[in-house]
Amino acid sequence: MSAAEEAVVAAAPKAIAGLERGIDWTGAFWVASGVPPLVLFSIGAVAATVGKLSWIIWMASIGLGFIQSFTYAEIAGLFPNKSGGTSVYGAIAWVRYSKVIAPISVWCNWFAWSPVQATGSALAAGYILSALFAPDSVVNTWQITLLDLGSIKSGLTLRINGVFLLGAVLMFSVKAIQDGGILRSANTTKILGISAMIPLILIGVVPILTGDIVKSNFFPLVPLAHDAVGHVIDGTWNMNGITVLAGGMFLAAWSTYGFETAVCYTSELKNPKTDTFKAIFYSGLLCVVVYTLVPFAFQGFLGLGALVTPAAVDATGAVTPAVYSGMLAPDIYSGMGVAAVMAKMVHAGRLIGAVVVVMLVLALVLSLITSMAGSSRTLYQASVDGWLPKYLSKVNEHHAPSNAMLTDLCFNLLLLLMSDSVFVIGAANVGYMIFNFLNLNAGWIHRLDRPLQERPWRAPTWVLVVGAALSFVNLAFMGFGADVYGVGTLSTGLAFCALIVPVFVYRHYIQDKGHFPEEMKEDLGHNSGESVIKRAGIWPFVVLVLGVAVVAITHKLAVY
Known about the structure:
Layout: H1 3-11, H2 25-32, H3 39-50, H4 54-77, H5 86-94, H6 101-113, H7 116-132, H8 138-141, E1 143-148, E2 157-161, H9 162-178, H10 182-210, E3 224-226, E4 232-234, H11 239-256, H12 272-302, E5 307-309, E6 312-313, E7 319-320, E8 323-324, H13 330-334, H14 338-345, H15 350-384, H16 402-416, H17 421-449, H18 461-481, H19 489-498, H20 500-511, H21 518-524, H22 539-557
Helix pairs in contact: 2-10, 2-12, 3-11, 4-11, 4-12, 4-17, 4-18, 5-6, 5-17, 6-15, 6-17, 7-9, 7-15, 7-16, 7-17, 9-15, 9-16, 10-12, 10-15, 11-17, 11-18, 14-15, 15-16, 17-18, 17-19, 18-22
């Protein structure tokens, strides 16, 4: 380290006990580079939901995410000593007004971000098994059903199969990397990040250069619909069409908004005052490129597809849905067939195609690392701040949040047992939309309640206003669109979000006797008396009521 770098580190705020300042903004950028591969998780499900609107959905969604990120960048700079990301910084804004609302922000962010590990490892395992074995091979077809969850969503089960076993191996491997601390994680993700970006950029560019983009695959710009017998037709812009559009925007947001994880490592940055903004800004630019090019090229190359097997009704009245090729194919919806199609998009032969699939698997592993690094630090910081149980604040000899990562791993092993990854993403995204709502509004609350606090980067006021408006738009996407992915998606997500209440009550009122930890008092303003000043008045409560109303009304208006 040069003398200049040593001076910067010395001048930086001290890291939280247990974590160390070992990376600059490029390190955070590479750890967050696992967000662009999230396009692989839901590109098929979004396309199968909205049809030819898919490319518009992805571009609009990443545009909204980029605008929102500037609010997150400002509030992250307020707390250079904290890890855990935007939800932690937003919770501090809300705690002056409600002790219960504040931890919901942290919990919902963790609940939304953590399942990347389960869904990503399932996809990676599916890619590998599909490449090595035939679809009807016993390796791909054997299954042991543990529990029928049809009461939550039709067809949902807990099961053990080849995808679960191989996915579990991948998750344990990722945890082994994470146990070495943030610097080793950053170095590993730099290597994987380069490996992941090469195929994604090629997939987005090659079909354009080779003329494989078919114009008719993009138009007309109308939502997907089904006729009386279940066949796909062009829809209209009625309430059913709006519901479909909202469903696409809802699911895409889980992937496109995710680069805000770049600010999870603020307390591990050598110079958080300048590095925090750079990390989220350049991560956002990378996501804009990937989320614009890849869905556009994917749709232009593949198209909606054609009818393969018509819908059928048996003697009992049970309906077997129609089967299509193209973007509407079942393996595209689930994501398992996406890698094979993307190999064809770059005109890869058998050998090169295998290389492309391997590189896409590495891209998914990169997403797992990003998720475990970010979500475990959210749990860690929430424990340090007094929101979640104390055991989560333990770190190992490499300054990695070991207990938080172990909790993450166990939770995701349970999710990996679920038979429907799209349902898992949908339910998790309910938490993400709530987190998004609370933290976009935390921007203006912090601006009012902490007018004199130093801000390394200050967003233009109009950006905070737009961000607050978008928080309601995102709730409308959730109200309209969550149950597009199965009746029960919204209620399941809300139920899991509510679990934070007994968890917080246990930590705050039983473990801490109603007092926040010493580490939290300065941030809350207890030492200066600032915590009693509530300049936002009743407006945070008005915002909450309006938010609930938006979800209730849009869900009532939705037509499935």
